[in-house]
Structure formats: C-alpha cells, structure tokens
Amino acid sequence: MNFLDTIGEKILDCVLVALGRQLGYLIHYKSNVDNLKTQVEELGEARDRVQHDVDSAKRNVMKIEADVERRLTESDDIIAVAGIILEDDRPAKMTYCNGWCLNLMSRYQVSKRADKAASEAKNLKDEISKIKSVGYRESTQVVETVTSNREYEAFDSRMPAINGVLEALKDHNITRIGIHGMGGIGKTMLVKEVLKRAEKDKLFDKYLFLVVSNDPDLKRIQRDIAEQLDLKLEVESELVRSDQLRKRLKQENRVLIILDDIWKYLDLETLGIFFGDDQKGCKLLLTSRLQNTLRVMGTEKQFPVGVLSDNEAISLFEKIVGDLTGEFKSNMPQIVKECAGLPIAITAVANALKNKKNIYDWKDALNKFKMSCPIKIEGMDEKVYKSIKLSYDFLESEAKLLLSLCSLHPEDYNIRLEDLLNYGVGLDLFHNVHKIEDARYRVHALVGGLKDSCLLLDGNYNGTVKMHDVIRDVAIYIAAEEKHMFTIRTSIELQKLSKREDAVAISLPYTNDDLELPNQFECSKLELLLLFRKKVDFRIPDSFFEGLKDLKVLKLSRIWSGVLPLSLSSLENLQTLCLHGEVQNAIIIGELKNLKALSLSSYNIERLPKEIGQLTHLQLLDLRECSRLKFIPPNMLSSLKRLEELYLPDDVEWEVEVQSTKKINAMVSELDHLSQLTKLRICIENAKILPSAMVFERLESYRINIGKAWLRYRTTETPRILELRTSFQSDYGYKVLFRKCETLVLDHMNGVKNNLYELDSEGFQRLKHLTVRYNDEIQYIFKSMGVLDSIFPRLESITLFNVNNLEQICYSRLPTETFYNLRVVTVSKCCKLESVFSSSMVGCFSHLQEMNIKDCEIMSAIVAIEREEEIEVNSDDNIMFANLRSLKLRNLFKLKGFLSVVDSLVLFNGKVAFPNLEELKIKDMDSMKMIWSNQLIPDCFGKLETMTVSGFTNLKNIVPPNMLRTLRNLKELKIYDCNFLEEVFEIQGTNNVEESRDIAAAELISLKLRNLEKVKHVWSMDPQGIITFAKLRTIEIDGCSCLKSVFPTSVAKALSQLEALEIKNCAMMEEIVAKEEGIETTTLFVFLKLTTLRLYNLPELKSLYPERNISEWPSLESLDIRKCNKLKMFGSNESSMQETNGLGHYANLIEQPLFFVEEDKFPNLERLELDGGDAMNETCGRPSAEFCCNLKCMRLYGNGGKSTMFPNEEAPIARAGVSDFRRLKNIVSFSSTSFHYLMRLEAYGSDVLISLLTPSTARTLMQLRQIGIYGCKRMTEIVANDGSKAEAGDEIAFNNLRDLLLIDLPSLTAFHLGNRTIKFPSLDFVKVKNCPKLKIFCSGVLSTPKLRHAWMEEKPIHKMEGDGHVDLNATIKEYWEAKLETCDQKFAEKTDASNGEKNEHETNDDLERETTSEVGDTQCDGE
C-alpha cells in the first residue's frame, strides 16, 4: 500500500465517521429530544434546590457566592434555550406529501441542538449538585447604625471633649480612653459623634459598640462581641469563649471597642478583650458615670462631660418648643434652670411642654419641680428624675402603661412593636379596641408620641424601639412605685418579689446564671410575666405557674430546656403567649382556651399539634419563624373562626384535594371559613389550590407567594405583596390580588403573551413596586388600548431582569399620569430591548431618581426618538431628567448614545439634560468614542459629584475642555481599564484676558486611575490660570504604563489638602511633577497634609521634580518606596547643585533626590517600608537623625542581593551615607535616640544581611514590641556578637518585646552568641520555622519570665498560668535531641531492613547516603 492509499483511507474513515455522526442525529432524534426533556427537568430540580438555599441565605442576610449565582443564571439560560428547542420540535414532527415525507432537515437541526443542550444541562446539573454552601456572612459593621446620631446637638461646651478624644484616638501611645459624667449628661451621644468623625477620618477599620450596664451579663457581652465579629460562640464555658474571642480579636487590625455605661471594674481579659502584644492600632473607649471606675479600668486619658451652659440650655429648649412670647417666654428660663443643664432633662421637659398652649400648664410644671421630693437613683442627679417624671406625668394613661412595659425589657434591648402589640392585646390595654389591626394602629400612635417626647428612641432594626438607660432607670422606678410592675435583677429581689401579692407585672431580663426560679410564684394578681434568655438547659419547675391564675401575658424567650411545665395548662386567663426557642410539648398549648395571640418561634416543630384548633378565641397566630414546619392538621385552621391575622412559614405542604377521608394535611381552602381574616402571609406551591376570591377580597394586608417561590424581596415595606412563579390563570382570585397588590414579583411566570397590562385591566392603580424576572413571553410592559386615563399611577420602582422577549417597555403614547411617581428603573439582561424609553414617554418620568441599565445585548439608546411618521417630535425640544440623581450604565456594547441620534457615538449629546445628577457610573460600552458632546445644555451635569468610567475601548479623553467648568463640583473620579485613553483632563490655553481671570476651583477630592495602558497625561497641559485642583485629598494611580509624570507644576504646588498619594506599576514614569517651562528657579513644593506616600514598581522614576526644588512633608506618617531602582532617596543641597559653564548657562544637571537631608524633617513619620534599589546605592549623603526619630514600624525588603538596612555611623562606609548595601552587615541607629519609639521591626528576603542589630543599637530600642525576620539567607545572629568581651553585668534588655518571629533563616545559629545577659521581661510569643542551624538561643543568661507560647518548627508549646515559662534554650535543645533520635531510629530501621542482595559495605554506604539525605530534609544535620 503506497502513501496516497494510506492518506485516502484515513480521509475516507474521517468522512464516514462524520457522516455517521450526522446521520445519528436523525436516527436518534426522538431519544435526543426525550433526553433533553429529562436533563432539563433534572437540572430544574437541582436549580430549585439550590435556589431554595439561596433564598434562605438571603433571608438570613448572607452574601451569595459569585459562582453559585453564575450557575443559577447559566441554568436559567440553558432551560430557556431548551424551551426554544422543544418549541421548534413541533414543526419538526410535521410531515409532507400526504404524511409520507418527514421534515428531515428540521429533525436533524432539532436533534443536534437537543443533544448539545442535553449535554450542557447534564454537566451543569452535576456541577450544581456538588454545591455544598451557597453563601457566607459579610463582615458585620455596626458603625452606620451606631453613628445615626440625629438627636445630637453641636454645643461649644462639648467640643473640647470631642477634639480631645479624637486626638487621643490618633495618639499611638494611648490605648484606653475614658469619658465620664452623670447620667443623662449626653455621654453616649458624644461618643456617637466621636465615632462619626472617626469613621469619616478612617481612623479604624472596625468598630464594636457594647453596652455593659449596671448589672453586666458577661455572656451577653461576649455574644454581642462575637456577633459583631461574625464569630460563632457555641460553647458555654466562659474561659473557652474568652479564648476564642481573644484569638479572633488578634486577627483584626485597627479596631475601636466602645464599652458604654460601665459601672464597676470589668475584667476585660477574662471577657476576651485582649489584643495581645501588638495592639495593631486597636483601642478601647469607655464611658461611665463614675470617674473612679475609669481609673481602675486603666484608662490613660479621661475626659469629663459637663452640664450645658445657660445659653446652650435655653437654646436647646427653644429649639424644641419653638418661638415663645409673653408669659411663656418669661417662665421659660426658670423651667430651664430647674433642668440643671442636663440635656436629657431639658429634652424631656421641652417635649412635654411644647404642645401645651395654656400658660397654667407651664406654671403648674414649674410648681411640680419645686415641690417634688428628691428621689435617689444611683448615678443620677435628682433633677434628671424630676424632669423625666414631669414628662411622664403629661402622658395619657395608655402611653404611661406602654412606657412601663418597655422598661421591663433588658437594657439597650431592641423592643419589637409587635411584642408591645401582643402585650397590649393580652392585657386589654386599649379601650374600645377589639380588632388586632386597630390595636396595632394604637401601638404605633402611642410609640410615635413617646418618641416625640424623647422617652423612646428608634431601634437598630425596622419595627423596633429602644430606651435610653437613664429614661429606663426612671421608668423602672415609676413602674414599680405606681404600677407595681417590677424588674428583677438579683436573687434577693427574686425571693422578695416572687411572694409579693400586689405585683401586676414581673420581668427577669437576662438574669445571671446563678439565679434559680422558685417552684411557684405566689403573686395572685400577676398579669404579665416576661422571662428572657438564660443558660442552656434551664428548666422551669413543673408547678411554677400554679399560683398565677390571673396571668394574661406570658413571654418565654429562649430560656428553657424545651419542655413546657405542666402547670402552664392552669393559666385559664392567659390571652397572649410568646414562645421563642425549642418547644418539645407544644400540645399543652391547646389547653389555653382563652388565648387571643399566639407567637411561636421554634426551629424544631415540623408538625403543628391539632390541639391548637381548640383555641377558638385566637385572633393572631404567628408561626413564620417556625422554619421547619411542614404539616398542619386538617380542619385545624378552619376551626379558628375568630382569626384575624395568620403568618405561616414558607415550606408548609398543602393537601391538593379531598382524595379520601384520611387527609394528612390542611387544605388552603380552609381559609374560606375564616371570615374575620384580614392579614395573611402564606406560600402556596400549587397554583391550582387557591382559596376562593372572597378571602382575597377581605384581606387588607398580605404577603402571598404562589408557585415555587419564596418571599425573598423584603426591601419594600408595602402591606400587600404578591409573588408569582407559575403560569397565569384568568381566575377571579388572581384579578383581586393584582388589583390590590402594592408589590408584585413575577418570577418565571408564563401565560402572558405580549402585554403585562393583560394581568389587570384596571391598570394596576395601587401598584408601587414591580419586578419581572426570567420571562420569555412578555413583549411589552404596557401597550395602550386607549381606554384608561392612567396606568401604574403609583408605581415607584420597576425591575426587569432576563425578560428575553421584551421589545419595548411601552408600545405607544402613555395616558396622563402614567408612571408619574416612578423613582427607580432597573433593567438587566433583556436581550431584545433596543431602548428603555421613547422620547414621548420621558415627560411621564419627571420624578425618576435612579436608573440602572446593564447587560442588554442589542440596546442602542436609552431614549429612542420616534420616527416622524409615528409621532411628530419638535427637534428643538430638550429631553430633561430633572430629578435623576443616579445613573448607572454597564455592558451595553451596542449603545450608540443615550439619545438615539444616528451615528453619533457620543454618550450624552446636546439634546438631553441631567441638572441634578449626582452619581454617574458607566462601564463596558465599546462603541462609544466620546462621553460628552461639544455642545451641552448649560449646567447639564453641574451637580455631578461621583463619576466612574471603566472598560471603554475607544475613548481618548474623559474631561474635554468644554466640561472642565461644568464638572467643577465633581468630588470623586475613578477611571479603570480604558485601554486607548490618552488624557484625563484635556486643557486648552486661552488668550482671552477676561476669561483667564475667571479661574474655576474644582471640588475634586479623590482621583483613582487604574490600568490605563496608553494614557500619557493626567492633565494635557498645565491648567494654571484656568482651573485649580487644590481640594484633592487622595490620588491613586496604578498600571498606567505610558505615563511619564503625574502633575503639572501648578497642580502640584496647590496640593495643600492632599493626604494620600499612591503610584505603582507605571513602567515609564520618570518624575512625579513635570518640568515647568520658563525661568529655571528653585521650586517649592509643600505637601502640608500628606500622611501617606507609596511609590511601588516605578523602574524609571528618578525624582520628584527634574529641576532644582525644595519639598516639605510636615505631616508624613507612612512612607513606602519599593522597586524604584533609579530613584534617589536622599541627597545634600551641594551635591545636587546645577553646574554652569562659566557663562551663566547650565552645563550639567545632577539628578534631584526625593528628600534633601539638610532641609527635610519628618516629625510625624511613623511607618517606613523600603527595599534596596540601585538608586539607594548611589544616593548622596544619608538621612538625617530626624528622619527616623519617631518611627514606630519599619519594614525592610531585600532586592537583588541588596538590603535597606542603615549603616553604622562609625563604619568606613558611613562617609557614603546610605550607600553600598551589598557590603552591609547589620543595622545600627544614627544616634542613641534614632529608633527610640520603634515598636515593630521586620526584615524580608535579604541575601547579604548577617545580623540585624549591634548590641549598642539593641539597647536603644526601648519600645520595640515585635521583631520579624523572614527569608534572610545569610543571617547568623539577630544581635551581632561584635567580638568585644562582655563585662560583668553587661546585659541587653528588650523591655517591651512581646512577639519574636524567625522564619526561613537557613544560616541562623543563635539570637546572640555573646556572653551577655539577654532579658525579655514582656516576651509572650516566639515562632521559629525553617532555621536548621539554630542550636541555641543565646550563650549568656536568658530571661523570659512571661513566655507562655512558642512554636518550634511545627510543634506548638503552651504554658498555662502557674506552670512556669518556656525556656527557649531548653526547648531548642529538646527539639534537636528528639529530631536526632528520630533520625537514628530511621537509620537503624533501614539497616535492619537490608535484604542481603548487596555486600555489607555497599549496603552501609547506601544507607548512609539515604539517611543523610533524609536528615537534611528533616533539618537533622547529623552532628
């Protein structure tokens, strides 16, 4: 067979294989289609399982993993594609020629696509099945909640304390700060204001706010800390919990922990608040009524908060009550004087009197002040009590009782308004109110009045309130004295009050673990009992409730073992029962025949007891937090005839139809029998089993989910929410729901072919929020039929996601007032949508505030101009979005412009205006060549403050000349990944004298440029005389390869507000400030507020400015310069002088250094990071002593065999200053005080450094807390043995060193080999890893009295208190002895295993080689 035959056979084989594959699509047509159906069905089931988990995670405020969301989206896409294929399968089944000829081409295409789609579906299903976890909890940050300080008043008398605390927070030497003052003076308000300012200045990364109170519950405080740190504490042992918190806190940097309202000494280390040796910028801020408490807590700075001045007190009072005249004005100073300058007292009295228009009320209030007897409450001025009592006396009786109920909750507790409602219903608190919803109205009205009186505060969550601790203290006292309502905090109080016959209400809020309940309460008149969280397995005695015949309200909040006491059934008058926690015998609840309100929150109930059906007086049943509840007994719901409100969890399984007499579950149709039902929360998976429409007609409020849907959209607070994930059915029940609903979510809903308007022919008159997701049928949201006057008149937001067949939102002219209230438009992944609005629609969107459009494949314009033959459009009219505040456009690759002007390729042209736009984010629009037109409407973008531009491939500039003044209010500009961008600000000079005098001042504060590969200029020319950028505070430039300089000279000179400058990864940058044209003189640059300077990977950078200059950096705190090999760091004036040729002309220019040593002083420099670039080797002079005198952290990096350690002044190389690091042996100080404040010293990757410190240098490091040495290959000692003989008593003491880390040091033999005493009085942690030659820590005497924790290679060593300390020399010796013993054992084992195939001499040689190799691998050197 010749070569050609072979080739021919192979070609034939390939052809046959390909032909067979293609024929296979026809042969296996049916099986491929059936397989697609199977795979898609299985994929859908897998997707739904994961979606369920995702919905549950979102309800628990978890962040969903990106890959999970991506796979869910992919599954939706595959299912949608499969639907199209299966739809195309219908014509493929058709026959021709009287049924004899099959449509082979269609079958072939369908089969091929089905085979591919089935494969993709299977692969994705397998991937989805492997998903174990769908989300995670984001880092908790309470600062936004804490700093919502709306009631704060900025008094002059408070400013010294605020400024003092802020300065102390910035002082690295202060770690504990205290604020003290009497109760009601405003300590917490002041602290919140401090936090607000600290957050603004970015002083800390995390804030923990903890309320301690008079009777601190340590476990609650630990739990609060853990929750704010996203840590789960699943153990009860305080010691173990403390250890877990301590370890978790050590992982954080720059944490501020606020301990509010401390009354007595609190052992913070036992609690778990312990940062370890390195504070890492973490601090404590404490408040107390008692200054002595702050002293014993070890605060280093204490700030008093005093009373307001007379003028401040009067000003605060007048602000609340308004302008006063006549006798009101004359009486006011006397009333204010009685408040003694206490803000809480002034606020309480002013709010009580502000609506009193009769002067006699004011005079009566003044008399009450003067006549009232002083009341002594610990830590509270008697004037505070009088003031709050006066405010209380003005309340109506119901408000007084409601305030007393609030006082029964734990301090700083978020009190749910729904709990207050349940208490009120049970106590029959509200006169002439019989319905639950009416009672709710009354609760909200009363709470609003109490908040207006400043007796209640907003809680941390929607639907909650809180009490100021001082208000609570007074309310507790009043409730006990006047209402016989008691709060029990001690076992003594419990013994006394449990036998008090006149007690009406008793609360045990967060009681201590040693408090045990008596077998029986002997309080025959008790009507309300609240028991809050206690220890695990706490058990209520069986006879506990026997003496409480009149009890009407009972709340048990996660306090018991799960077993309800039998005596509970004796509470025949109980009307409200709230159980939160595990319930094992819920059947007993059925005995409480008079219950009106029942709230169960239990994770272990799967089946509701049928006995609940006996509660025929029940008006409210709340089971929404019973997350595992699936089964409700049949006929139970229908027996609750008086039920007005029903709240059910998501996963209840409903009976489909009456199949037999043995029904397992309740039927939804049972709701038909509840004629009083007005409020409902329910999920119904089967859309065919809805109750009758009459149920929906009666409902005033509902959250209803139909189909495989869960209520995931909880952002809206509307009372009527409907979510559908099913096929639309023209049922009257649906029509009622559509007509009444205010939030509508359509998710995977089918049956609406082309017009959403079909769902409600009345035009959705009440709808406020509309969301449509994953729909392949809807063509239009609205297609006018010319009947109604308005459509969606109340709609506030519309969200469209994956509406794949949507062609237009509105097809024709809109009726009057349609979309009139629309505020937010969000459109995403609508693949057939070419525009969002038509030009005729824009007038309907006058209130639009937010617009977010993204991922629409063919969208060519946001606003489309109608064709003239359809609607006449006046070409001179402008399109105005008058109230739009935020505009976000992303991934619109076919977009030609915001307005459809043919071939413009300009995003914003002169026909569209945004006079109030504040935020603009635009990303990934490949076709755009310009953002702005040359002719825009005046002030079109005049209020724009934040702008982000990224992913544009054709833009040449961002801010053209005509936009410089227009965008002068811009505060933040971010530009990323615009590959062809050449300029950011295009500047054009002007010859007009008058125009040049009108210099604009830009408001720009932050400028961030990233990955702009071709940008050559940030400013195309110096903008001097045109616009200034003096307010810039932060500049970050990264990955701008062609940029040679950053600032024109005039811009750099004006940067008086600049705080942070970071430039990195710019390959061609030569100087930071470009050379100024004109007369060559010495240029002065003053960076007055610059605190952070980072220059990284700038290989061509040579200087700050190429000409003669002086720079000042008085505020510089952090300096990081690495991989800048040509940059001259330090130099002298003389060495950098320009030389002349004798004729007055410059003949040569020596490169300018970054810092001049004679002139530069760095009084605030605390952090220094450097490496050993080449320019450092050529630098003239050396840094002055002032350069390092205040350093607290220094990190030094090796670079190509060099190091950045500073040379010994006495060494021969000192004459060259910081010069040849290749010969450097160690680091010493410039003077005896150079590193006096250094707290952290680290060295990385030096190939030449032999030691870190000389003995004389080591003695100056009095504040050093951490040493870390990593990857220094030639280092043999940390403290060099300089050869001098140590005299008697010669010692080196690292008094504050707490952490020592020695990692990857292959040549290290000891910390110090000299015969000196080495003392570490504070050392707590040592880690040694990959140091194979370290055989001894030091040769002299070693003292480590507090060393408790050490790591030797991978072996941890821990000593408990009382077990002594870790002996480093002994530990190292023991480690090597154990290692050598292991090596000897392995050698012996190999010798014994010799099989005799080799002679003894050869075997021993081989074993020796193998063992030697193994010893080397395990760091045994065989010595």
Characterization of the model:
- Residues 1387-1423 are annotated as: Disordered.
- This is AAA+ ATPase domain-containing protein.
- Residues 173-327 form the AAA+ ATPase domain.
- InterPro entries: AAA+_ATPase (IPR003593), Apaf_helical (IPR042197), At4g27190-like_LRR (IPR057135), LRR_dom_sf (IPR032675), LRR_R13L4/SHOC2-like (IPR055414), NB-ARC (IPR002182), P-loop_NTPase (IPR027417), Plant_NBS-LRR (IPR050905).
- Pfam families: LRR_14, LRR_RPS2, NB-ARC.
- The protein has 1423 residues and is α/β, with parallel strands linked by helices.
- Among the domains are: 11-136, no CATH class; 143-304, 3-Layer(aba) Sandwich (Rossmann fold); 1257-1366, no CATH class; 1383-1417, no CATH class.
- Helix content is 27%, strand content 19%.
- The chain contains 30 helices and 68 strands.
- It has a 33-stranded mixed β-sheet, sandwiched between helices.
- Helix 12 (310-321) packs parallel to helix 14 (343-353) and helix 17 packs across helix 20.
- The radius of gyration is 39 Å and the shape is globular.
SSE layout and pairing:
Blueprint: H1 3-27, H2 29-59, E1 63-64, H3 66-92, E2 95-96, E3 101-102, H4 104-129, E4 135-136, H5 143-146, H6 159-170, E5 176-180, H7 187-200, E6 206-213, H8 218-228, H9 238-250, E7 255-262, H10 268-271, E8 283-288, H11 291-296, E9 301-304, H12 310-321, H13 326-338, H14 343-353, H15 359-371, H16 382-393, H17 397-407, E10 415-416, H18 417-427, H19 436-452, E11 457-458, E12 464-466, H20 469-483, E13 485-487, H21 491-497, E14 505-508, E15 528-531, E16 553-557, E17 576-580, E18 597-601, E19 620-622, E20 645-647, E21 679-684, H22 693-698, E22 701-707, E23 720-725, H23 732-740, E24 743-747, E25 769-775, E26 780-782, E27 797-803, E28 808-810, E29 824-828, E30 837-838, E31 850-854, E32 861-864, E33 879-880, E34 886-890, E35 897-899, E36 906-908, E37 912-913, E38 919-923, E39 930-932, E40 946-950, E41 957-959, E42 972-976, E43 983-985, H24 993-997, E44 1000-1001, E45 1006-1010, E46 1017-1019, E47 1027-1028, E48 1034-1038, H25 1049-1053, E49 1060-1064, E50 1083-1086, E51 1092-1096, E52 1109-1112, E53 1118-1122, E54 1130-1131, E55 1139-1140, ...
Parallel strand pairs: 5-8, 5-9, 6-7, 7-8, 13-14, 14-15, 15-16, 16-17, 17-18, 18-19, 19-20, 20-21, 21-22, 22-23, 23-24, 24-25, 25-27, 26-28, 27-29, 29-31, 30-32, 31-34, 32-35, 33-37, 34-38, 36-39, 38-40, 40-42, 41-43, 42-45, 43-46, 44-47, 45-48, 48-49, 49-51, 50-52, 51-53, 53-58, 54-57, 58-59, ...
Antiparallel strand pairs: 1-4, 2-3, 10-12, 11-12, 55-56, 67-68
Helix pairs in contact: 1-4, 2-3, 2-4, 3-4, 6-7, 8-9, 12-13, 12-14, 13-15, 14-16, 16-20, 17-19, 17-20, 18-19, 29-30
